[in-house]
Every structure is written in structure tokens, then in C-alpha cells.
Amino acid sequence: MNKSICLLAFCISFMGYASIEASHNEAGFINMAPGVLDSFTASDIAGSDLELSWTPAIESTTIDAFILYQDNNVYGWFGGTETNTIISGLVPERTYMFRMVILDTSGSYSDFSDPLYITTTEEVISYCRASSFDDSFEHIDYVGIGEISNSSSADGGYFDYTSQVANLTIGSSNTIELSAGFANLTYEESFGVWIDFNQNNVFEESEHVVSGLALINEESTFFRFLIPNTAKLGTTRMRVAMQYEGSPVACNSDFAYGEIEDYTINIMATAAKSATSERRTKSPINEVEKKLSVTVFPNPSDQYIQVNVSDKNSANYMINDVSGKMIKSGALQSNTIGLEHLESGTYFISIFNGKEKATKQFIKK
């Protein structure tokens, strides 16, 4: 009955771990392990994946399996005729070591191949392009949300502000402050905001958090939106678009007047203690609401609401739903605003008096 002694070859367990041993028969002769590799290379190296290719030093007909190690762990087993594989799920800008062991048809294992060291590249985030042809008449003047408080001038139709990050909590309600800047005359502008909640590098319609809101002056407008509970945690892209005459879309390089800006949103499981945005040249939300006193009643209501304003001089109003969509607007000529055309739900009414703004929530039964 033959008996083997383990010294310096490989025994690989059913759990995928390897130990070094050599197989001796009773006569003391070593069963020679096969050669390893003639070549071992990597290609298509990206932030999170790459392709490995190899050429064995022996005929493939004598090879039962290739055993690939990533760092010091078994990555996988490959058939004797396979010569390449895609490695995915790697961390960008990190160095990995790959080695190979060959199992031949007689049951012998080779030594480790020479190690192949590969450093993955920086992660390249590729979103659709968007830009206006001309932002000399109007441009995005201010974006404020979380820690982002960015005043800007005309940037050539598009600008990448992704170095600026706002920390937002999953499931939370948030307010974004936006305003338009004009070279001379003021125009009617519309804003659109998208956040890539699932981080697939695509701005989907379900990620369109602000839409259809027109501005006709340089005053800031505040829009509310929710971070859905299904959002993926971590950093992602927020796109802010402003367009003259028409509703902006996330991927558009063909519109004439307006501007696009990109920012970074960090979606967290729990709130972090951090400063919120406060515009340098205009009063923050709390200060504005203290100066302009507004009351809304009855609340809830099914037919109309009464709006009392401390300074009604030339006041205008705008009603938005919870997604930020404008439902109704006009001059506040009387204290009564009819709700007959609104569906049941939660709404926000913003009052402007030319200098200040206040926003209140109400419920339509």
C-alpha cells in the first residue's frame, strides 16, 4: 500500500486553502510538479477591474486546472484550456498581487508563479455631457445645500464643482437654494436638479428632484425634496441645470441659453454634525422668515387658505408640491387662495415681497 509524505509541494483542501508539501513515494522518488507560466500579464486596467492573461509552460493537455491567488487568498479555479479572466470589484488606486499554481492531470501541483503586481487606476466617473451654448445673458448664480454654499459667475455653459460636497441623510427632507444671475435684463428661467441615488452614472427620471420652477428675478428660490430610503450610501453626483424658455433636462448640450453645474452629494445612514450652507450676500432661510411674517389657515383645508402677510406690499406667491413642482403662482391680491384644483396632499406656499421670502407648509384635504 503506497504511502505519501508531504514536504514541499501543494495540497489544496476542499475549502480552497493551500499548504506547501512534496509528494514522495515509498521508493523515495519525488513526483516532479509541472512548470508554472511562460507569461502572466494584465490589461484593460481600470478603477475596479482588469483582465489577467497567462500562458502555461507545459502543454495544456497535461493541465487539469489553474489556481489563481489574489494577494494570499485563492481567487478561483480555471480549466486547463482557459488562459484569461476578468477580475472585478477591486478598489481604485490600490496595488494587488496575483500568483498562479498549476494542477496537472496526475494530481501534482506546481510552485507559485512569479508574483504579478498591479495597481488599479483612479475611478473614472462618466456621466452624460451637458452644457448650454451661451451663458452670457444668464447663469446659475448660487447653489446652497448642506455644506455647499457656492456663488458663481458665468462659467462657459458648464462647470464641474464636484469637489464641493454636501452630507445628506438617507430618508431625510432637504432644502436646496438656487438663484439665477443676469448680465443686464432679467428673464424667466427654469431649474432642474438630479441626484444619482443608485450611483449607476445615469440621471434617471425618478432621480429628478426639482423641476418646472420658473424664476423671473435674481432672488433665491428654495426647493424641498426627499432622499429616498432606497438610495445607495456614499458619494454620488448632483446636477443642477438652468434653462431659458423651456424645462431643462439632465443630458443636453443643445440648448441655447442657461448653464449646468455638477456637485457631489454624500448620502449617509445617520446625520453628521456639520455646518449648513449660508449665502454670503443674502439672508439665510431662518433670518428671512423672521423678517417676513406669514400665517396660513385653515390648515388642513379643502377649499381655500387664508394667507396673512406682515408686509403685503407687491407680494407674490408660488405653490409647490413635495417634489418641488410648481402647481400655482400669481400676485397675492387678496388674502384668499383657492385650492379647488389641487389634489389632496402636502404643499408649500412661498411668499415674496420683492425683498424677502417666507415659505409655509399646508395640507389640502
Can you tell me about this structure?
There is one protein chain. The protein is an all-beta fold and 365 residues long. Helix content is 2%, strand content 48%. The protein has three domains: 5-119, Sandwich (Immunoglobulin-like); 138-268, Immunoglobulin-like (Sandwich), CATH 2.60.40; 285-364, Immunoglobulin-like (Sandwich), CATH 2.60.40. The protein has one helix at residues 285-291, and strands at 5-6, 10-12, 18-20, 23-24, 37-43, 50-56, 63-70, 73-79, 84-87, 95-104, 116-119, 138-145, 148-151, 158-169, 173-182, 189-195, 208-215, 221-226, 234-244, 258-268, 294-297, 304-309, 316-321, 326-331, 336-338, 345-352, 357-364. The relative contact order is 0.12. Mean pLDDT is 80; it is low at 1-33 and 280-290.
List keywords for this structure.
1 helix; mainly beta; 5-stranded mixed β-sheet; 4-stranded antiparallel β-sheet; Immunoglobulin-like; 2% helix; disordered N terminus; 365 residues
